[in-house]
Amino acid sequence: MKFPAAAALALASALLIPAAASDAVTFVSHDKVAAALEKGGPLVTASNLLVQGSHRDKAGQVEVHEKETDVIYVQDGEATFVTGGKMIGGKSTRPGQYLGKEIQGGESHRLVKGDVVVVPAGTPHWFKEVPSAVSYFVVKVLK
Question: Could you list the residue range(s) of the whole structural domain that residue 9 is in?
């Protein structure tokens, strides 16, 4: 069963995010969402989470976030996404954040529109191949 983006984000929120201290509602207009999916950018920033739109037209670097679980929902396009294994050539870019050149071992996933993948904090992950382009939402749940 495929979920629309709003359902995937709601599901991630319900399962992974503890109730916020405030009951404030955050609204993000469709124009801002479209811009974030086209060029990348933050949509919601709170004390325990970040929601951003992202777009790639080529492979990325391996990432490891010590204190962030990534919930990724593919809005459009496709990519080969590798998780787990060992990051090769990793360097700290800021506290708790690492970028590397490749993953040794790990599991490949073919991501397409409608897929959701949850990457626990501390797990290497990598958009290894992007045939044309991929647009996706990321909910970063902060420890």
Answer: 5-17+27-142
Q: Cα(47)–Cα(36) distance, rounded to whole angstroms?
A: 20
What's the number of domains the chain is made of? 1
pLDDT for 124 equals: 98
Residue 53 lies in a domain: yes
Residue 143 structure tokens: 């420890």
pLDDT tens readout for residues 77-119 = 999 999 999 999 999 999 999 999 999 999 999 999 999 999 9
Scored b (16 or more CB within 10 A) or e, 45-80 reads eeeebbbbbbbeeeeebbbbbeebbbbbbbbebbbb
The single-letter DSSP state of residue 66 is: T
CATH code of the domain containing 125? 2.60.120.10
| Alpha helices (runs of H) in 17-138, residue ranges in sequence order | 30-39
The two three-digit tokens of residue 102, written as one number: 């490749």
- 22 lies in some domain: no
DSSP annotation of 20? P
